[in-house]
Amino acid sequence: MHFRQEIGKWGENLACQYLENNNYHMIERNFFCRRGEIDIIVSDKQKKEIIFVEVKTRSNFRYGNPIEAVNRKKQKHIKQVAQYYLYINQINEVAIRFDVIEVYIKKEGYTMNHIKQII
Question: CA 10, 41, 88, 66 torsion: positive or negative?
Fold first, then answer.
């Protein structure tokens, strides 16, 4: 596994831990279809929502802030993958939300930023 992939996987693991610690229920990780991938799918049982989460991890800002990588094209793919996920799982009439979790890896640890309802 390349360094960037390792950083990304580590960021996803941290995001999953964060979500579980904040009362989200894990449904699926790395859901993949022809149109792309969704990193994490969770539910918020209190709000009765399904949340599709994109995780962006950075160890430096050479390529900008993590949220900048979730451009219109990426948002379109996330929506299409989410629609396909809902279709194949026959999930109807449920609220959905699209979030991004930014993970910043630092020498002394990491910081995380949960951005809700990006689309």
Answer: negative
